[in-house]
Amino acid sequence: MGCCTGRCSLICLCALQLLSALERQIFDFLGFQWAPILGNFLHIIVVILGLFGTIQYRPRYIMVYTVWTALWVTWNAFIICFYLEVGGLSKDTDLMTFNISVHRSWWREHGPGCVRRVLPPSAHGMMDDYTYVSVTGCIIDFQYLEVIHSAIQILLSLVGFVYACYVISISMEEEDTFDFIGGLDTHSYYQDHVELKPVKPE
């Protein structure tokens, strides 16, 4: 019963992680955030692997999922530090786009309550081909939305890590019990079917 409850909980957690990762992937694609896109892609693959291992009773797959959750927590903690500008990091750098574009988080211009206005270059007294955007009226700044997303990922990963370890331990105990009982049955079967034959003197 304990194993079933743990497995069901882990399956639900993996499903929630998939939904949250897909939602995050969509908005990262809209913002051309290539580093998070790559991380989300790997996360989705490993969560599917963990979900498959949980359903099919494959402890090794769940172990891979467990290791990845630790790495995923670390990555999301880095994203939180990045957007809160902790330790010399700056959210205005092109780190999340691998320095190949000047795009920022999609939430920067499309957050709740944000009013986006495109300004012509002449408004800045500069003659170039760039488009300038003015964003005002945001209810919550984009960096805090990114922090909330990462915090949710960390919470789900920590709970998933605990349940994954629990399911692995239960599965290992059941395998050991099965092997022990199977060994006894084999030994008893051997003893029951061995016939002692008297040795005839020549």
How would you characterize this protein structure?
Helix content is 65%, strand content 5%. With 202 residues, it is mostly helical. It has a domain at 1-86 and 143-190. The protein has a two-stranded antiparallel sheet. Helix 1 (2-30) runs antiparallel to helix 2, helix 1 (2-30) packs antiparallel against helix 5 and helix 3 runs antiparallel to helix 5. The longest helix is centred in the C-terminal third of the chain and has 52 residues, at 142-193. Mean pLDDT is 83; it is low at 183-190. The chain crosses the membrane at residues 34-55, 62-86, 151-170. It comes from Sapajus apella. Belongs to the NKAIN family.
Task: Provide the descriptors you would attach to this structure in a database record.
mainly alpha, 202 residues, two-stranded antiparallel sheet
Strand content: under 5%
Q: Sketch the major β-sheet.
A: 2 strands, antiparallel
Mean pLDDT: 83
The portion of residues assigned to helices is 55-70%
SSE-based structural type: mainly alpha
User: Tally of extended strands?
Assistant: 2
Number of helices: 5
Parts with pLDDT < 50 across at least 5 consecutive residues: 183-190
Radius of gyration (CA) equals 28 Å
Q: Terminal Cα separation, in Å?
A: 62 Å
Overall outline: elongated
Strand order of the largest sheet: 1-2
Would you list the SSEs in sequence order as H and E? Answer: HHHHEEH
